[in-house]
Give the backbone structure.
Amino acid sequence: MYDLFFLDFNSKVPLTQEEETVIKQYLTPKKLRKKQYLLQEGDVCKSIAFIEKGALKAYSVDDKGNEHIIQFGVERWLISDLYSFLTGEPATYNIDAIEDSELLLISKTAHEELLQKVPKYETYTRMNITGAFISMQRRLTSIISSPLEERYTNFAASYPNIVQRVPQHMIASYMGLTPETLSRVRQKMIRK
Amino acid sequence: MYDLFFLDFNSKVPLTQEEETVIKQYLTPKKLRKKQYLLQEGDVCKSIAFIEKGALKAYSVDDKGNEHIIQFGVERWLISDLYSFLTGEPATYNIDAIEDSELLLISKTAHEELLQKVPKYETYTRMNITGAFISMQRRLTSIISSPLEERYTNFAASYPNIVQRVPQHMIASYMGLTPETLSRVRQKMIRK
DNA sequence: ATTTCTTATTGATTTTTATCAATGCCATTT
DNA sequence: AAATGGCATTGATAAAAATCAATAAGAAAT
């Protein structure tokens, strides 16, 4: 249940056995069935979730009821509404499970105590957020500067596992397109 | 010359006098004239820059020679090609000065030694990157989910100083639009 | 087994945005 | 004072994407 988390942690910041034991005490396992919410817009985000198994999406919903996916999460990734988590403000995103999932939750108090007590946890956090920043910057660059086909190609090349596991209309949402448009872009590409 | 930097640092993580002295030794002041490069695509990004004065932009250039601005930076902000800085890979962004600017540079070795020697520097870094992540996430959400007018309104409300200081065609670039389109969007809004 | 739901595709049409081209303004330089 | 370059606006047209609507295939539920 904790395997992937510590695999990931150790790959970034090697831990002693004692440190692992301390950290483990702050983690709360949670299982989520497909379509269940981890977080609903308007609630305060109480935790950061490490994904041991499964797939989730974070998204906002506009006036017309359309979902706009801001982030996918699969094994070894973290998912959260970080702004709500850190400030205690109501969440602007929803998070739910695309597949049955197994998570490790880090609550606000756990997060704060870990930052205090385990210096390596701060390093781990810094590395995670840095990685997330860089990949989001890539995504943004691609959106503002690349033609559609290239954007899809890039995405598919960067996240082949997501393209396989997730329905196309969600990919379209993630790219800021309608499902119809993405379908047509793919047809064009296939014809080549 | 160092005032803003330590003002910002102390507001996030209070420092002792000794710590300030240590950190100061790792900072290199640099002045940049309008239009001068801090970084050119293809070069390795050698530093993170804290902006004491002025304004800069980070951008990529596409096949047709169009600039796509990924980030603006003004006083109290950091600017860099973080991926290049951290990995040593060639930069994919250019960074240059929109106005005459004064910077404090943190080199790679300075960054690494500071992370080692001054725990508060790691905290400061973590807070900075977290803030950058959250605002970029907002920007991305706005791009994939809001109509154009709203996006411009949001941007202008969030960064009034940038709207004032920076030519409109750069704002358009930042929003992923042509200057003509942004001009028309603004006309529509004014008429209301 | 059949019904329901989700998903993907396709076509016709409208809306949005980009492109191309021209103009005028203002600030700076000469 | 005239010339230059950077910038914003406007118009006409083309291209891209959204919308609306219909169909069909597959998976899941009853």
Q: What stands out?
A: Chain B touches chain A at residues 60, 62, 66, 68-70, 82-83, 86, 92, 119, 122-123, 125-126, 129-130, 132-134, 136-141, 143-146, 173-176 (CB under 8 Å).
